[in-house]
Amino acid sequence: MRKYITNTIKAFTGTAFFMLLQYHSHAAVLNKDSVITVPLGGNSWVNNNAKAQVDSTGLTHWLAGIDVVSIYVRIEAAGSLNVALKLAVPDGGSTIQAIVGKIVLTNKVSNHQPAIIDFGKTLIKSPGYVEVKLKGLKKSGKEYARVSDLLLSGPATINGAAYVKDNHGNYFYWGRRGPSVHLNYSMPDEARSNAEWFYNEVTVPMGNDVMSSYFMADGFSGGYFGMQVNSPTERHILFSVWSPFNTDDPKGIPDSLKIQMLKKGTGVHAGEFGGEGSGGQSYLNYPWVAGKTYGFLVHAQADAKAKTTIYTAYFKPLDQAQWMLIASFKRPVSGSYLQGLHSFLENFEPEMGTAQRRVNFGNGWVVDTSGKWFPLTQALFTGDATANINFRKDYGGGVQGNQFYLRNCGFFNDFAPLKTVLTMEQANINHPDIDFSKLP
Question: How distant, in Å, are the alpha carbons of 318, 366, 405, 435 from that of 438?
């Protein structure tokens, strides 16, 4: 016990040690696990146009008083919460605020070496995400401070917290991007081996067309097809097919395993992609809008003898009659029809991981090689690794009326349990009227 107290005194400066003693006054032994250390490298963002930066070491280049830093952590219990920061002031001294809700905690700091500085207490009224804002008030040096960690303790931490805990596997990057979520559709038994067509409808609700979002409508074991927000002035209809060769560098794919583009629609850009696997990619610059419904259609032509499959993607606004061809790709080492049908929602830019987004999917159908239509009314809701290891819990999925929906990012509290089976009543007993023979 004495040895542990001595080590604790060495590890904490200022009033941080007494903060721990106060929290553990009811316990016979100090619990070193009671302090939650939240690294800023994976859990913080700066306001728009700020000079301050967040990298793997934490907050740096904090030069301007207008720069505000937001740190997010999900607290799993109500109660008193002690707030401290591990920081260093390169030169001079600074006055810094840590703001939690309406509580403003202020401290003057001048330590030139990293140390844990206590800022005070706040009260957490219920479990959920907490935003801690850092503001610089005064400084005599160039930078307000360099902050590596937020340290939390007290009764509110008794059940732990959800946050990006470390950078193993580049999780600071993935954690700041936020959790991706998926709908894995249940295939009808009759179409498991001969699903030739996959039709789905997508609606992004008003206000949810957030920058750096990918609303993926028609996913299958060989590729994916959906719509993106790429910039304030550019939006894509994106169709990609994976190469069976496992690499992140498309230039390293042997010719025999490359994705071959057979045709593309008017105005469609085509090429290769890499970085997260590799393969053939196509996209159409198209000004799709929130609140409007769009149809996505994928066709698979399987050649079991040649072990190839040709995947072709078509797109149209629901209120228009004509389908637009996006592209057609031939995939080697295949030879099967559509499998693993799914949809997903992701944010592909770490700086946009604080913005919530939602998408609705409905009227999904699969058509077998005999031309029989089957409705897709059941899906398994799942998340990526960031969600599965509880680094982020701002994810959701469910059924509303005659649509499935997915939500992610934004640090909302009403998350949906992963691996939930979602069932929707069949709203449309009549499938869409599509003349496959007249498609471009």
Answer: 17, 18, 31, 6
- Residue 135, helix vs strand vs coil: strand
Query: What residue ranges of the chain have pLDDT lower than 70?
Result: 1-33, 426-428
Write down the pLDDT at residue 252: 85
Tokens describing residue 34: 């009671």
Rounded distance, CA 206 to CA 357, Å? Answer: 10
H-only helix segments in 337-377: none
CATH architecture of 2-163: Sandwich (2.60)
pLDDT of 116? 98
> How many CB atoms are located within 10 Å of the residue 403 CB?
19
398 CB-near residues (< 8 Å, 6+ apart): 381, 404, 405, 416, 420, 422
Q: Give the separation between CA 143 and CA 119, rounded to whole angstroms.
A: 19
Q: CA nearest 170: which of 52, 36, 55, 274?
A: 55
Residue-level pLDDT at 50: 87
How many residues comprise the chain? 440
**CA nearest 340: which of 129, 198, 158?**
198
DSSP 417: P
Gap between the Cα atoms of 199 and 367, Å rounded: 8
pLDDT in tens, 290-319: 999 999 999 999 999 999 999 999 999 999
Domain segments of the chain as ranges: 2-163, 176-438
The per-residue pLDDT for 249 is: 79
* DSSP summary character for residue 241: E
For residue 204, count CB atoms less than 10 angstroms from its CB and return exposed for 0-12, middle for 13-18, buried for 19 or more.
Answer: buried
- Is residue 100 within 8 A of residue 131, CB to CB? The reply is yes
Model confidence over 394-410: pLDDT tens digits? Answer: 999 999 999 999 999 99
Residue 428, pLDDT score: 67
With left for phi above 0 and alpha for psi between -120 and 50, is residue 277 left, alpha or beta? left
Q: Which amino acid is at 10?
A: K
Distances (CA, A) of 367 to 188, 191, 202, 427, 437: 10, 8, 18, 18, 14
